[in-house]
Amino acid sequence: MLVLRRPEATDEAAILEMMAEFIEADSAHDGGFWQPDQFHYGDWLEANQLAEMGIGISDGWVPAIQFVAFDNGRAIGFLSLRLRLNDHLINHGGHIGYSVRPSARGNGFAKEMLKQGISAAISKNIPKILLTCHEENAASRAVILANGGVLEDIREGTERYWIGGNHEQSKTPGMEE
Questions:
Q1: SS3 160
Q2: Where is the N-acetyltransferase domain (predicted)?
Q3: Superfamily of segment(s) 2-163
Q4: Is 4 strand, coil or helix?
Q5: By three-state DSSP, how is residue 10 classified?
Q6: C-alpha–C-alpha distance, residues 66 and 144, integer Å
Q7: How far apart are CA 57 and CA 42, in angstroms?
Q8: C-alpha to C-alpha distance for 102 and 161, rounded to whole angstroms
Q9: pTM summary value
Q10: DSSP 90-135
Q11: For residues 25, 115, 108 and 150, what is the CA-based torsion angle, rounded to 10 degrees?
Q12: What's the count of helices (H) and strands (E) in the chain, helices before strands?
């Protein structure tokens, strides 16, 4: 059973093993952010906690919750829930970014991770959730559509989908026509 939750100190070995797989496969790890050459697990955990509160985040970033998905103790993937949107995220990132480790892809994990991420967003009072994917990313598109995503538009190769809220209104919240 897949569980999406904040990472803990006791998860270090499982998460480091997953990170190594992403690096070895030279695979994007959307929803999980780290610098391999300067990584320290304890510092990463602390930075995640501070980022959730909006403390110490870099310019251009927003408060976010870092989640990791686990299946029977094995780290499966990352999911980042951005608690608000900025101009970049409105056009190219959305509220949720996620990735599944290469060896676990094709097993429905991304669909379940996103489902649980949507529930987390709703619990944080984000009733209308923006998700994006690149036009050529058929797998991500399928995951978004399976979770009820409604395409709003495509901007510079980025498909923008909304889940929840009123899909009849097709303008971006906070943006004037």
A1: strand
A2: 2-168
A3: Gcn5-related N-acetyltransferase (GNAT) (3.40.630.30)
A4: strand
A5: helix
A6: 19
A7: 17
A8: 24
A9: 0.90
A10: HHHTBSEEEEE-GGGTTSSHHHHHHHHHHHHHHHTT--SEEEEEET
A11: -90
A12: 5, 7
For 142-173, how does the pLDDT look when each residue is reduced to its tens digit (9 = 90+)? 999 999 999 999 999 999 999 997 644 344 44
Mark out the alpha helices in the chain (DSSP H runs): 12-24, 41-52, 87-92, 109-123, 138-146
* Residue with token string 């990735």: 99
* Helical pair 12-24 and 41-52, crossing angle rounded to 10 deg: 100
Strands 96-100 and 74-82: what pairing?
Answer: antiparallel
Q: Which two tokens stand for residue 25?
A: 């496969």
Both tokens of 84, joined, read 């608000």
**Alpha carbon distances (Å) from 176 to 110, 171, 173:** 33, 8, 8
55-88 pLDDT per residue, tens: 999 898 999 999 999 999 999 999 999 999 999 9
Q: How many CA atoms lie within 13 A of 79 on its CB side?
A: 28
Task: Supply the Cα-derived Rg of the chain in whole angstroms.
Answer: 16
Q: Which residue has the tokens 């060896």?
A: 103
Q: Distance from first CA to last CA of the chain, Å, rounded? A: 44
One-letter amino acid at 135 equals: E
Structure tokens at 100: 């599944």
